[in-house]
DNA sequence: GGTACGCGGTGACATTTGTCAGACCTAGTC
DNA sequence: GACTAGGTCTGACAAATGTCACCGCGTACC
């Protein structure tokens, strides 16, 4: 039996995935978690073969949880299952030691097949996504530019961001300006969208 | 047997929900659709008792599809199952004739229970959401203000929006300004976020 | 030692954005 | 007919935003 834990914040989706996998004779869902933090404690207790993680979760996200899990349970393989196939997500997921990257747009039957391939030692990646990740270069944003862009997401003004990051307003403007240019956008909103689409945040 | 069709754009979630409902002895998933448009053709063919719709779908969204379905198949009850419980969504869903409004945060076992209650003629609404909808007033945005706000979402400039909606730039600025005030925001980004949270878009 | 890069800052400048007052037209309501 | 609300427009103004040039500091790397 392949022992699997699920981490996914939406309870109904989590339960539905569990029932989907429950139909497979060789797969056993031995634990569930609603956040990255919860996953780590559950995995420590049940010692799964495979952890199936969503990226978008409250608290620690799926990619961060993947990295922690690789440290604490090296024998457990990590699979990322997420809504959006952003190239940057894939890159970060692979760097944090994931064995698979699936998107929720794929047919449901592929999930069990992917789990078996990962258990056999293969790496499973959506081919279209792999191509996109190779064609898109690495993240051009410096850490600070990234911080400033993220802080501007909820409609904050320059002075809000400056206060929040303990910077001068001029510095914030400079970072924002260079982030806008690096994303070849025309304003912060567009820059935020482009960077988000690439998975640079 | 209760005959159900599912409409949900993410194939894996759709398949998982189907397998979840497949476990219930009195529920039969007789059709699936990946968009609002597809739902209407599928429902016309299989004549279900209940349609379970996600809101966020490409093309016709779940609420619009609910309205159309009520016209073409008055005997079929509509249930909305969605990620976010925005008050405005609930209001619009109810106005378009939905019998239930569930959020994906709820436990998986509640889904089958809700389906049975709807089949029995009840209306099922998340109590916390109902309270939020009652406390939040109706949508204060005029149709044009709403259009302009939506068009500004992807980082468009004033002149982009003006060209797109065939308006003068001054007019766009005026609408945007009044939308910002009605949402008590400080700029369009914040206004967009507030309006989105309320389900006013 | 020189060079490059990221971080943090200043000051000046042009453009964009948000606000306000006012105008005209239409459709509905009392 | 008067009144209101929404839609469309203009012009003017202040504030916010984006760009540019330039400075200093530290830490890499060759």
UniProtKB/TrEMBL annotation, chains A, B:
Pfam family, one: Response_reg
InterPro entries: CheY-like_superfamily, Sig_transdc_resp-reg_C-effctor, Sig_transdc_resp-reg_receiver, Tscrpt_reg_LuxR_C, WalR-like
SMART domains on file: HTH_LUXR, REC
Domain HTH luxR-type: start-end pairs: 134-199
Alphabetical keyword list: DNA-binding, Phosphoprotein
Keyword ATP-binding (UniProt): no
GO BP term, example: regulation of DNA-templated transcription
CDD domains assigned to the protein according to its UniProt record, in alphabetical order: LuxR_C_like, REC_DesR-like
Domain of life assignment: Bacteria
Modified residues (4-aspartylphosphate): 54
Gene3D superfamilies per record: 3.40.50.2300
Domain Response regulatory: start-end pairs: 3-119
A GO molecular-function annotation: DNA binding
PANTHER family membership: TRANSCRIPTIONAL REGULATORY PROTEIN DESR, TWO-COMPONENT RESPONSE REGULATOR
The name this protein goes by in its record: DNA-binding response regulator
Species the sequence originates in: Acrocarpospora macrocephala
Lineage of source species: Bacteria, Bacillati, Actinomycetota, Actinomycetes, Streptosporangiales
